[in-house]
Here is the input.
Amino acid sequence: MCKMCMLLALVVVIFSAGCATQQQFLDSNQNMAIQTVMGRAQFEMNCQELAPVIISREVIQPALQGPWVQGIQRAEYTVGMSGCGKRATFVVICPEGGSGCYSTGSGPFHNWQQ
Here is the structure.
């Protein structure tokens, strides 16, 4: 029974360490994500005085995972921008191990209603 308790404790430690790592990954990329969307929003909204708001942030797991294939984990931020009487929402992706982030624009990636 003690071996089972040790195994359970080990699993809990491993999962909690993974959560801390994901939070650190999100924290470390958040400023770069805001700067990335700031440039795009200033251009698209024709406004230099913008205020960013992080609406959501999460770590997206790779679509391909297996013993021989590993995809790239990504931090995804939804950032709301407001200024000059305008508001817009942007999605920013920051790949793990990459040197920057990219803004994917606003709205859903696919319109499933059509």
